[in-house]
């Protein structure tokens, strides 16, 4: 249909059930005549939930003069300019502007979803409140950003959102847009606060830095690949490309140190060019070894010893030699030139209990409750008594939980220090008394 108008008077009873229907409206909008119009004097109930209105003309729109809840407004002509003029509250599940769009009038729209499209311009009525409950999508790009502003410069329009509103925006130029709702809303890194005129949004800080890299970005260092594939844009985005090698393909393979350039033409006849240097560096690897179990007091030394390398361990140390003796996960970043590799080793420290031969050691795993104990000696008591060197494991099961532990016992032979003979000396004299030195032993002398 070309036009759809709903009107009545007090003498005519009108009942209209539209729920679940889809209407394609092809008519043109004139200054005071809209393809879809719902007049204020419509007296009966209008059921319009889940109704879809699709507008296809290059200049189209809807005029709503009665409070009403409908389904979706889809403006599907990408070259068009559309307007929704609202005089009473309009509730919609979705508003999707593929074209330029205007929301005007003395009232606002409450929407489930609002979708604004790349390269288009949108104007919302100043001082009015447009509410988005579920999803706000406005995705431009660096060549075709979205312009979003109030209809009256210097007078803000309000966009209200809830705590559950999902916001997905990029490359949007804001002017006089005030976000209201629960706190501040993140406008993302590529969005622009035009003339610092917006409120309720968190914009990235503006710096005076000049971006020196072109569309290639900074020079490229290849560390461990035998081949690099350069692809600047999707083939649907560009009209033509000429590489410095003479190739016209969208992507190009680079296998050696070189400087390569490209001249790109887009469908709108915009042209850009850039060059980039590609350097292949020699690959290298590091190996901290397999995960390790240490005994208490044992030290593991890691020595990487790579020429011209820089090291950064997990604790901030920068030496090529690293000693570890505690349980944990250890990693190191190693950089040679601009290439970097990382490796990790996990270390478990096994506890030890020491005694002398002839003594015994009691290993006790007692916990509260009524657990089941299983020792590596096949004993099932909470504690066991051991007399020999060995590694002992125990698992303790309580209801659905199981805990395990391991301990090493070491029994030392008592040292034979020999006998000291009694000796007599005169007053003022001294003698030296000693015993055989035994490695890793401490000595404590007593005077009787």
Notable characteristics:
448 residues; mainly beta; ten-stranded parallel sheet; nine-stranded parallel sheet; elongated
Account of the protein in words:
This protein is mainly β and about 450 residues long. It folds into four domains: about 5-200; about 220-280, no CATH class; about 290-350, no CATH class; about 355-448, Immunoglobulin-like, CATH 2.60.40. It is about 0% helix and about 50% strand. It has no helices and 40 strands. The strands form nine sheets. Strands 3, 6, 8, 9, 11, 13, 15, 17, 18 and 20 form a ten-stranded parallel β-sheet that branches. Strands 1-4-7-10-12-14-16-19-22 form a nine-stranded parallel β-sheet, with no helix packed on it. Strands 30, 32, 34, 35, 37, 39 and 40 form a seven-stranded mixed β-sheet that branches. Strand 39 (about 390-400) and strand 40 form a beta hairpin. The N and C termini lie far apart (about 120 Å). The relative contact order is 0.05.
Short description, anyone?
With 448 residues, this protein is mainly beta. Helix content is 0%, strand content 48%. The protein has strands spanning 4-6, 16-17, 22-25, 36-38, 46-47, 52-55, 59-64, 68-69, 72-75, 81-86, 90-97, 100-104, 109-116, 121-124, 129-139, 146-150, 157-161, 166-170, 172-175, 177-180, 185-186, 192-193, 201-202, 220-222, 228-231, 238-243, 251-254, 258-266, 271-280, 292-295, 300-303, 309-313, 321-324, 328-336, 339-356, 361-364, 372-375, 383-386, 390-398, 401-412.
């Amino acid at each position: 249909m070309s036009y759809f108008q709903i009107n009545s008077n007090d003498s005519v009873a009108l009942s209209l059930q539209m729920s679940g229907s889809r209407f394609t409206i092809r008519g043109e909008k004139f200054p005071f005549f809209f393809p879809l119009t719902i007049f204020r004097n419509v007296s009966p109930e209008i059921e319009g939930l889940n109704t879809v209105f699709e507008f296809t003309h290059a200049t189209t729109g809807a005029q709503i003069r009665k409070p009403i809840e409908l389904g979706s407004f889809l403006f599907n002509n990408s070259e068009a300019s559309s307007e929704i003029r609202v005089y009473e509250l309009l509730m919609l599940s979705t508003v999707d502007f593929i074209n330029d769009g205007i929301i005007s009038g003395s009232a606002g729209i409450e929407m489930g979803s609002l979708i604004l499209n790349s390269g288009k311009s949108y104007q919302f009525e100043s001082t009015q409140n447009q509410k988005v409950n579920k999803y706000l999508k406005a995705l431009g790009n660096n060549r075709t950003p979205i312009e979003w502003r109030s209809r009256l410069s210097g007078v803000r329009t309000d966009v209200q959102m809830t705590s559950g509103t999902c916001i997905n925006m990029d490359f949007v130029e804001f002017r006089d847009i005030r976000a209201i709702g629960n706190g501040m809303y993140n406008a993302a890194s590529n969005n622009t606060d035009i003339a610092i005129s917006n409120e309720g949004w968190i914009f990235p800080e503006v710096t005076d830095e000049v971006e020196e890299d072109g569309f290639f970005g900074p020079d490229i260092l290849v560390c461990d690949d035998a081949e690099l594939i350069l692809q600047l844009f999707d083939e649907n985005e560009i009209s033509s490309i000429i590489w410095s090698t003479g190739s016209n393909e969208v992507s190009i393979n680079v296998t050696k140190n070189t400087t390569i350039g490209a001249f790109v033409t887009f469908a709108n006849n915009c042209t850009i060019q850039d060059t980039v240097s590609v350097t292949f560096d020699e690959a290298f690897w590091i190996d901290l070894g397999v995960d390790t179990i240490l005994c208490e007091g044992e030290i593991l030394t890691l020595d990487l010893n790579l020429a011209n390398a820089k090291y950064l361990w997990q604790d901030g140390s920068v030496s090529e030699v690293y000693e570890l003796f505690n349980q944990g996960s250890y990693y190191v970043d190693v950089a040679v030139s601009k290439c970097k590799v990382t490796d990790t080793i996990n270390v478990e420290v096994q506890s030890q209990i020491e005694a002398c031969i002839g003594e015994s050691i009691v290993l006790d795993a007692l916990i509260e409750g009524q657990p089941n104990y299983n020792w590596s000696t096949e004993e099932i008591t909470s504690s066991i008594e051991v007399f020999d060197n060995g590694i002992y494991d125990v698992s303790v099961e309580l209801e659905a939980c199981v805990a395990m532990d391991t301990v090493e016992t070491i029994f030392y032979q008592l040292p034979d220090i020999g006998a000291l003979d009694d000796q007599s000396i005169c007053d003022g004299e001294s003698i030296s008394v000693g015993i055989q030195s035994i490695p890793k032993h401490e000595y404590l002398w007593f005077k009787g």
